[in-house]
Amino acid sequence: MTAPSLQILVVQGTIREGRSSIHPARYVTDSFRENGHNTELFDMRDYEIPLFRNRRDAVSDPHPDVDAFGQKVEAADALVIVAPEYNHSIPGTLKNLLDHLYPEYENTAFSYVTVSAGGFGGVRALSHLHDITLEFNAHPGPDLPVSNVRDAFGEDGTLIDETYEDRFEEFVEAVADYAEQFVPAAVDTPETGI
Question: CB–CB of 82/24 below 8 Å?
């Protein structure tokens, strides 16, 4: 039996110049697509996310880019956050983006690809992401720490550390398996004919 196609939203967690985390973000997005999932990469660089003043659900006219993000989250079966570790935590731009929403995350499966230039793969950022996810009444799931990201990916985004090929494949499968348990099952109705 083939697993159903999921709607996956991959969130690139930084807008920093020279960011290396964009490479694993693109790689994991492509990997989900190759496995038959509808996957979109939300790159904050393509949006103008304002500083947080109030949640999307608390204002009558949310900023268009915040609203766009909210709609993408609502449509997603799972979120995959790709984040570098900055100063033992996540980038401020990512926290700002995430704070604009709240009820939109409820009961959503979250997974994480954390990266670092050193050998720990962003594990302190991962710890903070788990805490944030739990506060959203969402479900923290599989993670993939990527250590020495500049050695793992070339400047053009090519995966050069072959040990990560299997890790990414296992991660994609684990995310799909994990997320499926939170996706509402199709209901047998006369209209759908299921």
Answer: yes
Domain count, the chain: 1
CA distances from 16 to 21, 31, 41, 72, 171 (A): 10, 24, 17, 23, 25
Residue 46 lies in a domain: yes
Which residues make beta-bridge pairs with 59?
Answer: none
Alpha carbon distances (Å) from 50 to 3, 12, 53, 96: 38, 16, 8, 8
pTM above 0.85, yes or no: yes
* Residue 67: CATH number of its domain: 3.40.50.360
- The pLDDT tens digits for 4-19 are 799 999 999 999 999 9
pLDDT, tens digit (0-9, with 9 covering 90-100), for 40-91 = 999 999 999 999 999 999 999 999 999 999 999 999 999 999 999 999 999 9
N- to C-terminal Cα distance for the chain?
A: 17
Residue 189 within a domain: no
Q: Residue 20: which domain range?
A: 7-180
> Across residues 81-103, what is the average pLDDT?
97
Contacts 24+ apart (CB under 8 A), 64-67: 66/100, 66/101
Give Cβ neighbours of residue 17 (< 8 Å, ≥ 6 apart): none
Distance CA 161, CA 179 (A): 27
